[in-house]
């Protein structure tokens, strides 16, 4: 079917899309409306942690859809209970609220922190509500999560912002300390800043942040929407630093491609009262059945070690590419990695890679001088080699 036959104008224009329509996907590969195949290193922006249409997710959807779609979140359903139990068993948290997107989970974390600050007031008996977040951070596209984010220009896009978010600098503990006031209730960060170019928080910074928040009776919130669910080689990114936060949010990978997210908290932080948090689809049995299938795959013996091994392999191959083409280097954790180009050629690489024939390559350039790689966690070494070879050809073609 030709692109001109699709009525794309019926969709609201919220981003610039190329003139292709994807019709099928399997593993690391997508196929478009003309039958062209693409090696996909976006995977829905780290969403498809097991690749496109993995059999375990197909089976989970088919089985659950034939039993129960939605009894309403006013009642318990079995898959949500099972998934919540699995998550708490394998993390530092005691309670789970399921949502539909990372932004919604982060919105819930902000609400929970402010409610906790209302219960645990300051010395003057006043509510605490300020949350320290970080420049260049990204927490979503709701009004509150945009206000919590540190992306340039977002402070005016839908002004006025939601007040109460002060911005520190990642990996600079002094910048956090100087923002703490008697109104501060929490510190919120991504253990790896994804949208800003895959910038990991150091182990030392995370440990200092945990010590500071405990000393000042503040909550520590980790936004693991992108870095969680095995992406770094640990089940959760906070585990890289051997700390235990108070609140964690998950999204993207937890659903393996379907709309699922989670807000997790320690028991003493879980202070919501009935009516304060909810949502029509929270804990949906079809979505949480998929979450169970995804988590069971990640917990299989050797799976997370394979993510570490392939992350190390990709890092080594990207460094060889840097040496060959005079690039600046790479960084990241596990299978969330970035290539530092040294020049603003990222968008050109993305376009050239997509348009390659007979096979295309899908890449992401969150900054003009950088590429970000978010393959499925079960990507093969052969598929890493193929991407490196294609990217090397592109760099040569554009004269780099």
UniProtKB/TrEMBL annotation:
<feature type="binding site">
    <location>
        <begin position="223"/>
        <end position="226"/>
    </location>
    <ligand>
        <name>pyridoxal 5'-phosphate</name>
    </ligand>
</feature>
<dbReference type="InterPro" id="IPR050103">
    <property type="entry name" value="Class-III_PLP-dep_AT"/>
</dbReference>
<dbReference type="InterPro" id="IPR015422">
    <property type="entry name" value="PyrdxlP-dep_Trfase_small"/>
</dbReference>
<keyword id="KW-0055">Arginine biosynthesis</keyword>
<keyword id="KW-0963">Cytoplasm</keyword>
<comment type="similarity">
    <text>Belongs to the class-III pyridoxal-phosphate-dependent aminotransferase family. ArgD subfamily.</text>
</comment>
<dbReference type="InterPro" id="IPR005814">
    <property type="entry name" value="Aminotrans_3"/>
</dbReference>
<keyword id="KW-0663">Pyridoxal phosphate</keyword>
<dbReference type="InterPro" id="IPR049704">
    <property type="entry name" value="Aminotrans_3_PPA_site"/>
</dbReference>
<feature type="binding site">
    <location>
        <position position="141"/>
    </location>
    <ligand>
        <name>N(2)-acetyl-L-ornithine</name>
    </ligand>
</feature>
<keyword id="KW-0808">Transferase</keyword>
<feature type="modified residue" description="N6-(pyridoxal phosphate)lysine">
    <location>
        <position position="252"/>
    </location>
</feature>
<comment type="subunit">
    <text>Homodimer.</text>
</comment>
<protein>
    <recommendedName>
        <fullName>Acetylornithine aminotransferase</fullName>
        <ecNumber>2.6.1.11</ecNumber>
    </recommendedName>
</protein>
<feature type="binding site">
    <location>
        <position position="280"/>
    </location>
    <ligand>
        <name>pyridoxal 5'-phosphate</name>
    </ligand>
</feature>
<feature type="binding site">
    <location>
        <begin position="102"/>
        <end position="103"/>
    </location>
    <ligand>
        <name>pyridoxal 5'-phosphate</name>
    </ligand>
</feature>
<dbReference type="InterPro" id="IPR015421">
    <property type="entry name" value="PyrdxlP-dep_Trfase_major"/>
</dbReference>
<dbReference type="InterPro" id="IPR015424">
    <property type="entry name" value="PyrdxlP-dep_Trfase"/>
</dbReference>
<keyword id="KW-0028">Amino-acid biosynthesis</keyword>
<dbReference type="InterPro" id="IPR004636">
    <property type="entry name" value="AcOrn/SuccOrn_fam"/>
</dbReference>
<dbReference type="GO" id="GO:0003992">
    <property type="term" value="F:N2-acetyl-L-ornithine:2-oxoglutarate 5-aminotransferase activity"/>
</dbReference>
<keyword id="KW-0032">Aminotransferase</keyword>
<feature type="binding site">
    <location>
        <position position="138"/>
    </location>
    <ligand>
        <name>pyridoxal 5'-phosphate</name>
    </ligand>
</feature>
<dbReference type="Pfam" id="PF00202">
    <property type="entry name" value="Aminotran_3"/>
</dbReference>
<comment type="pathway">
    <text>Amino-acid biosynthesis; L-arginine biosynthesis; N(2)-acetyl-L-ornithine from L-glutamate: step 4/4.</text>
</comment>
